[in-house]
Each structure stands twice: as structure tokens, then as C-alpha cells.
Design goal:
105 residues, Bacillus phage protein, alpha+beta, globular
């Protein structure tokens, strides 16, 4: 998957499955038995991922614009990863996937 492909993904099951596999280490058997966690829509589920990221010496900066229609922005350092989304869970998911992609290089 490329940076562009990750950034244009919409919240939903496709993004949730990718996060589940790449970030949480889940497999199809887990999804079949328990369902796909709603990483890209449910902040409570997404925040578990944030807590995991924080344990690996990564600083997470979160912000959004002043207007409700503006995007959420997530920056991970020292990796230098920037991602955005219409919702905070979406932006966090994309930042985590981009960090994973960067670490594979």
C-alpha cells in the first residue's frame, strides 16, 4: 500500500481491517469470531491503539481547525508522520498505518 492509498481511504470496514491486521496484529479468524473492531469510527477503540503507540517512544500531536468542517491532524514524532481525516479516529488510523509503512523501509 502507498502513502496516497492510505491517505485517500475512507473510514469503514476496509480501513478497520487494514488497521486490525497491520497495527493490532489481528487475523481473519479473529474477525470471523469477534467481528472487525471499528478503529476508524470509534474513539474508544482507536484510543487503545494510541496507548500502544505511546509505549514505543513516539510523541503524538493532535489538533484540528477552528471550524467543525475542518480536518483533524495527527503528527507522530520522531518518525515525522503526518496524517489527517474528517474525524480523529480516521486521522489516528492513517497516521499509524503510515508509520508502519515508514518502518518497513
Amino acid at each position: 500500500m502507498t502513502i496516497k492509498e492510505i491517505l485517500i481511504m475512507q473510514p469503514g470496514e476496509k480501513l478497520d481491517r487494514l488497521v486490525g491486521k497491520e497495527i493490532a496484529g489481528l487475523d481473519e479468524e479473529y474477525f470471523y469470531e469477534f467481528g472487525v473492531p471499528c478503529y476508524s469510527a470509534d474513539i474508544l477503540v482507536t484510543w487503545q491503539m494510541v496507548e500502544k503507540i505511546r509505549t514505543i517512544d513516539t510523541y503524538i500531536e493532535i489538533s484540528n481547525g477552528w471550524q467543525p468542517e475542518q480536518f483533524w491532524w495527527v503528527k507522530l514524532t520522531p518518525e515525522g508522520i503526518n496524517a489527517w481525516g474528517r474525524t480523529l479516529p480516521e486521522a489516528i488510523c492513517k497516521a499509524a498505518l503510515l508509520a508502519k509503512l515508514e518502518n518497513k523501509k
